[in-house]
Amino acid sequence: MDGLMVQPRTTFDATPPLRAYFRSFGFADPSSIERLVERILADAGPAASPEAVMACARRRVEAWFVDVLGPAIVASGAVETVGRAAFLLSDSARRWPRHFLDPGSPPAEMVEALRRAMPPSIPHAVSAMPEQSLAFAWPIKPARLLPRWPASRPSQP
């Protein structure tokens, strides 16, 4: 390599992925995003890898949605996805930005708006369509089995 020394990158700033993650919830105000990023970085700890920081953020978001939306969101199976959809549909990032991920309970109006905006859970797939025969079922008898009628009937006097 022509004597070029390349040092491996030992530190990676986890804040850009965290900012992008919180923007996906509809946050546009930089101060709200920075508040959330700082809270997650404090929870994850200073020595956490970027993967650990993002995992901490996802766990924290899922736990918050379970606390706020209750068992209905757990039944859906995709807590983060359903919660994000409800958060975006209720415009909570604009209306109640300070209450997202707060340890205290959010305002009743926010909880009600999130519950109303929560998409219905998708039923789990049941068994596939039962196996059916591909043999053709005749709706009427084949022509060779029909009685033969004379082409014309004798006229009646």
Helices, strands, pairings?
Layout: H1 15-23, H2 30-44, H3 50-69, H4 71-76, H5 79-89, H6 92-95, H7 108-117
Helix pairs in contact: 1-2, 2-3, 5-7
Give a description of the structure:
This protein has 157 residues and is mostly helical. It is built from 7 helices and no strands. α2 (30-44) crosses α3 (50-69). Residues 4-11 have low confidence and may be disordered.
Overall average residue pLDDT? 81
Radius of gyration: 32 Å
Q: Into which percent range does the helicity of residues fall?
A: 40-55%
Spell the H/E element sequence.
HHHHHHH
Number of β-strand runs: 0
| Sheet with the most strands, sense and barrel status | none
How much of the residues is beta strand, in percent?
Answer: under 5%
Number of helices: 7
Gap from first CA to last CA: 115 Å
Task: Describe this structure in a few short sentences.
This protein is mainly α and 157 residues long.
Provide key terms for this protein.
7 helices; 0% strand
